[in-house]
Design a protein that fits this description.
The protein is an alpha/beta fold and about 170 residues long. It has five helices and eight strands, in the order βαβαβαβαβαβββ. Helix content is about 30%, strand content about 30%.
Length: about 170
């Protein structure tokens, strides 16, 4: 419970997925078990996913934004930027299905100067150069990355090996 002299920490959890799977279940469990010092908003591109993730905690605000289907979809990208600006979170928790996903949530955080933590479900790099470039550029502004699988795999003397391992991100 937040005391009258302490301001709640405004946490916004962003999900880009349109189906409920392990990542969404983990996010729902995390948010349901956060302390009362957090004022939680769940934002995403799917009303059903947003409702599921928000469902385990009372008092959660929700926000659905249009999915960005292509980088020329300026209206949807702008909607992400405006949503983060309007919500004014103290921290943005971005749930990435892949290392290169949710790039427009990361862009919205950068443009609004919101500290960001990213939890990556699958650490496979994109095969598209433009996505890799965008991710590398935006990820420099992410405060921390977390996940439950090897952070990255690279070729080393003919074989792939994990280079880092992180536990689940904790707030």
């Amino acid at each position: 419970m937040v005391t009258s002299d302490a301001r709640a920490i405004r946490l916004c959890c962003y999900l880009e997925t349109e189906v409920i799977g392990g990542m969404e279940m983990s996010a729902a469990t995390l948010l349901a078990n956060l302390g009362q010092q957090y004022e939680v908003t769940v934002m995403g591109v799917s009303a059903s996913v947003v409702a599921y993730v928000a469902g385990g905690r009372t008092g959660v605000r929700t926000r659905v934004v249009p999915p960005v289907r292509h980088k020329s979809n300026i209206r949807a990208i702008t909607s992400h930027v405006h949503a983060v600006r309007d919500l004014r979170p103290d921290l943005l928790l971005v749930c990435l299905a892949q290392l290169y996903s949710a790039q427009y949530a990361l862009l919205a955080a950068v443009m609004n100067r919101v500290p960001t933590v990213a939890v990556v479900h699958c650490f496979l790099p994109s095969t598209h150069r433009s996505q890799n470039l965008i991710f590398r550029t935006l990820s420099r502004r992410v405060r921390a990355f977390g996940g439950g699988v090897p952070l990255s795999v690279h070729r080393h003397r003919g074989g792939a090996r994990p280079t880092a391992r992180l536990g689940h991100a904790a707030l």
